[in-house]
Specification:
Helix content is about 45%, strand content about 15%. It has about 170 residues and is an alpha/beta fold. It folds into two domains: about 1-40; about 40-160, D-Maltodextrin-Binding Protein, domain 2 (3-Layer(aba) Sandwich). A five-stranded mixed β-sheet has the order 3-2-4-1-5, sandwiched between helices. The longest helix is centred in the N-terminal third of the chain and has 23 residues, at about 15-40. The protein is globular. About 20% of the residues are buried.
């Protein structure tokens, strides 16, 4: 038994960095799986009179990256975002576009500077998004699915995945 203990201690000493990497990797995977199961689904919402009845994933992505700017009737899409400090924004942008928040902002800033898009409306939280959307026929925003009220309609649901990076 003494020999076995000495061998284990020697192997751990030699491979300490590899063991640390494996432990960090396993912890990362485990925390990613547990946080995704705790994460909520995110609903893209609009006023009940909004021209869109529903959105496909492609349409939703194109709206939030500035490719779809107008409704079929010619009115401008009013995108409502939550503050950057809200975790839902980071998760939403990542899940819908595959971009980290900083990369999304830099792409949006370039489009804004070139005059291709207008600035987003930014509010504090789910409740404020719902209030904004209720007042504007052409507004589209996102909230936790559990926050949706009967005053708005859900156009698309973004489902959480195992990875939601911190910016």
């Amino acid at each position: 038994m003494q020999f076995f203990n000495s061998l284990v201690i020697e192997l751990i000493g030699r491979h300490r960095n590899r063991i640390k990497i494996c432990c960090v990797f396993c912890i990362g995977i485990f925390s990613g799986l547990t946080s995704s199961s705790a994460s909520a689904e995110i609903a893209i919402i609009a006023q009940k009179e909004n021209p869109f009845e529903y959105l496909t994933q492609k349409q939703a992505r194109r709206i939030f990256v500035g490719r779809i700017k107008e409704y079929p009737d010619g009115e401008r899409v009013q995108v409502v975002h939550q503050k950057d400090s809200q975790r839902i924004k980071t998760e939403f942008i990542w899940l819908l576009t595959g971009l980290r928040l900083s990369k999304y902002h830099s792409k949006w800033a370039a489009l804004l500077f070139a005059g291709h898009v207008v600035a987003h409306n930014v509010v504090n939280d789910d409740e404020d998004v719902i209030e904004w959307v209720k007042k504007s026929r052409y507004a589209i925003g996102y909230v936790n699915l559990k926050s949706v009220t009967k005053d708005v309609k859900v156009l698309y649901i973004v489902k959480s995945g195992p990875i939601s990076p911190d910016d």
